[in-house]
């Protein structure tokens, strides 16, 4: 039986690149021939694992390394708990309209139910179920301090038993990881870092990637690479300046190409996602 290929991450994750998958697949095959034998695909900021998962399905003979800095694999391992909590919340909110704001009595019931739950609590999932669209909380206290809504999913999440099959899962700081791989001719760097100058509350360590971290990363990047960014950050402006003024490391980005997709964050808020690549 062939393992399924996911078109989106099994569990909610801020910034997963599902809208880029068609282009991403094309770029993988443009950079790496055939089934990927002899190549390594390094997903440096692994996020939900969707990019690593897709790389393995498209290039089954390549070595695909997923740097699970956000510990997404732990969330996947507890999907059964998440689904059990989902069913309990759905029953508790049977009388509250879907997407409706929780009245005080229902809010108290939900908070008591979550506090008393005897399994794993996935804050990203709880954010998706109980907070206004686009908001992500990193703690139970934060979820409970905010206004809550009945956005509980109507069906269970898939078990995702084979989602990371065939993929090497590690957890490392990119500054320690990249020196072992950059500059090697058959290593494709896949880079989807937190966007500089944007809120990073949905990430495992909200303050770990600022301007200094971004500049450190740029000093390490070598082709071939695929890098994701957004107009919500200033990466393209930095890139244009670096190429125009021949700043340190400019040659590693000379001749790179860019593709863009428009995206909607929530009602009335739009932005543009970008992918920059060079092979």
Description:
- The protein is of the alpha/beta class.
- Helices cover 33% and strands 15% of the residues.
- A seven-stranded mixed beta sheet has the order 3-2-1-4-5-7-6, covered by helices on one side.
- Helix 4 runs antiparallel to helix 5 (104-115).
- The protein is globular and about 60 Å long.
- The chain starts with 20 loop residues before the first helix and ends with a strand.
- The model has no long low-confidence stretch (mean pLDDT 91).
Task: Calculate the mean pLDDT score and round it.
Answer: 91
What structural category do the secondary elements indicate? alpha/beta
> What are the secondary-structure elements, in order, as H or E?
HEHEHHHHHEHEHEHEE
Q: N-to-C terminal Cα separation, in Å? A: 34 Å
Strand content: 15-25%
Q: Roughly how much helix do the residues carry, as a percent range?
A: 25-40%
Write down the overall geometry.
globular
Work out the radius of gyration.
20 Å
Helix count from the secondary structure assignment:
10
Q: How are strands sequenced across the largest beta sheet?
A: 3-2-1-4-5-7-6
Number of extended strands: 7
**Largest sheet features:** 7 strands, mixed
